[in-house]
Amino acid sequence: MSSPRHLVSSNPLRDPRDRRLPRVPGPCALVVFGVTGDLARKKLIPAVYDLANRGLLPPGFVLLGFARRDWGDGEFESIAHEAAKAGARTGWRDEVWQRIAAATKFLPGSFDDDQAFDRLAQMLKDLDATHGTGGNAAFYLSIPPAAFPTVLKQMERTGMADNEQTQSWRRVVVEKPFGHDLASAIELNSLVDHVFTADDVFRIDHYLGKETVQNLLALRFANEMFEPIWNSHHIDSVQITMAEDVGIGSRAGFYEGTGAARDVLQNHLLQLLALTAMDEPVTFDAAALRAEKIKVLEAVCLPKDLSAYAVRGQYDQGWLAGSRVKSYLAEENVKPGSTTETFAAVRLDVDTRRWAGVPFYLRTGKRLPRRVTEIGIVFKKAPHLPFARDDTSELGANQLVVRVQPDEGVTLRFGSKVPGTTMEVRDVAMDFLYGEAFTENSPEAYERLLLDVLLGDAALFPRNEEVEASWRIIDPIEELWRQQESQGGGPELYRAGEWGPRGADEMLARDGRAWRRP
Amino acid sequence: MTALWDTSGTAVIKALSAERRAAGSVSSGLALTLVAVVDEKLVTEAEQAATAAAAQHPCRLLVVVRRRPDAPEPRLDAEVSVGGRLGPGEAVVMRMYGRLALHAESVVLPLLAPDAPVVTWWFGEPPHLIAHDPLGVIADRRITDAAAAEDPAAAQRTRANDYAPGDTDLAWTRTTLWRSLCASAYDSLSGDPHGAKVTGEASNPSRALLAGWLERRLGVHVAVEDSEGPGVTGVELKIGDDTVTVARKDGRTATLSRTGQPDRAMPLPRRELGDLLAEELRRLDADEIYAESLETVTGLHGLSARAPKRTHVWQDPMDASDPDPALTTS
User: Fold this and answer.
1) Which has the closest alpha carbon to A388: A424, A421, A426, A427?
2) pLDDT by residue (tens digit) across A40-55?
3) Are B143 and B217 in the same domain?
4) Which of A6, A180, A268, A384 is catalytic?
5) Domains and CATH numbers, chain A
6) Is A268 a catalytic residue?
7) I need a labelling partner for A252 at 20 to 30 A (CA). Which of A201, A365, B139, B175 fits?
8) How many domains does chain B have?
9) Each residue's pLDDT tens digit, A72-119
């Protein structure tokens, strides 16, 4: 908490034993750049409404939109109203919106317009008097990465990013991509960490806001039964999958030249790997969690024969969920002969005592049969089976699967006797469905993350070191693919609606393993 | 759904497991059992509230309706449903007639989800002594509602006298949004508190608890003032040089005013029963803050130090001179 007025301990009405009282941030303004964009309309504004509806926004809260539109406060308010109503997760109550509407402001301007930023800086000062925001502000940059430097420099010029100069807290939220390789990430990080301070920069990886990902930490560290076997003595391999059934839609402009590895592998999958493989943090605060995640990311190493363990693919036309879908190359605005990958699978190893010899297989792709994200822990076979060989022929390896989405939950697969007179053992699954009855109550990831930004709780946000460590893993893979391309090799085609190219299956077959079907 | 007339507890257990199997999946996320002890005329309302709460917390819902304890023959009627009209979970509605009403636990005990916490909620008049009702004795957490009593102040005193850690009251749950707003308002202030005032309907037990809470936390005298309601209508805090008031006249929206600052409107609705119940199910340990506030309201001491487990005290409403109302309903 950077604001001295928000010290919880000084408020006699707050007591750690009083867990009915929600964590409500101090007064502040949320300034959204690029408020006309898709993300702002579909996620951000509904999340603001849902937070307000749950009573989690402070009395002195202002929503401030900034974009190049000729709008007044009223026009922005009506557009935000529509967006909130369409995307709200919780029930609609007009009085809740009335309250947000009364504190909704719009400032027209382009990013290179000095006057607009001067007006913004002044407005943030004035909001303290008119709305009691205490001068605090969080800037949400929902803008293309190319516009980052311009906006950040404007903030630096007007001093609006400076906690001391403004005598309040100022934070910034940035969305992925955090650069497109190590060099660009370092450049971006140093710029944003320089304009703000590193503690005030919040990089959103919405996967980390999901309840199940946080539940992974509870599963591992709040229980006695998992952690003792969470190592190479008992675990054979780990498979992390993030599959999407959709294609790239209209995002060719962004996706071309980015590809699956930069879009998903570098951030979501490596973060999931870090949370799966990390040691127990000393506490659950941001610094301790980060320390453990960085240790893992720095211990990740690529296989010696990288070309055999880094597979990329691109979807061809095919049938998916009963409809015919076109190939990547036939998508709108994709360059003819594009070699952008829509599927990536890699093997990574974690060079620590805990994980020696345990491969981590990561894969992600578009136009796969269904949308699913999961972490599969595959255990070793029992060292000795006192049954006749035929009895256990259908017994697979024990598995613990954490389903991140959909059907959030945990599945444990183990052998069980088939009813009958013979001793026959077969796999069964024991299921914990997190969403079974909790769904209505589990907040959308953006809601949680937005609240954490306003509270100044950075535990669920990757820091610059993590981003840079991730690029150190991805860069050699991209480098390899560029090399292959210069020798005429491109991504392997897979039919839309199948689980990726054959090369991905061969990669595991080479190690004597097979992908789980999620 | 299975309806059983003039049945036995064993048949109910069988019907429940048959329903579970038919529903396709064995419910695995079961976190608790909610036992609702309900007056016949309130059954529909109780079912709606419990269904709403169960949608947020995976629970097995057991609704117990005690009917005509003077009926000559004991009888049990039951309705068993899984994923039916009573929400996504498992639910059993039981009507118990005659002497069986005094031994409801004989049917309920085998229906409790294994090793999961039990919450008992009286919708209708709760027992004067929870120890009189075996369904309260087996519970880890017990929910009453002083606001539903004819004399809420007396009911509140009864609850304080009978208090054991794990007891809670919906009059307290209704203060959460007010307390949250007061705490947020306090966050942006500095200086020592030197006065406070709570306004509301004279008989409103939430007003008393809110004032008790403020008095306990701030260490200043809290004045209480009557208004037309509905419920609690205002709080005033004097902190340092500032005065902050929260006023709610329509039961929906509050106006927050602070010296030298423009007024702000905040949604502060009177919540539905299901919503209150859901908040109660979120936590399953004793609420010490409630105990402290109740102490301040009633002048009693050491509520949290009492033993959390009760021992059943047998009372036959047919013989007792002052029969406990929970055992004699409808």
Assistant:
1) A424
2) 888 899 999 999 988 8
3) no
4) A268
5) 4-175 (3.40.50.720), 209-510 (3.30.360.10)
6) yes
7) A201
8) 2
9) 888 999 999 999 999 888 889 888 898 899 889 999 988 889 999 999
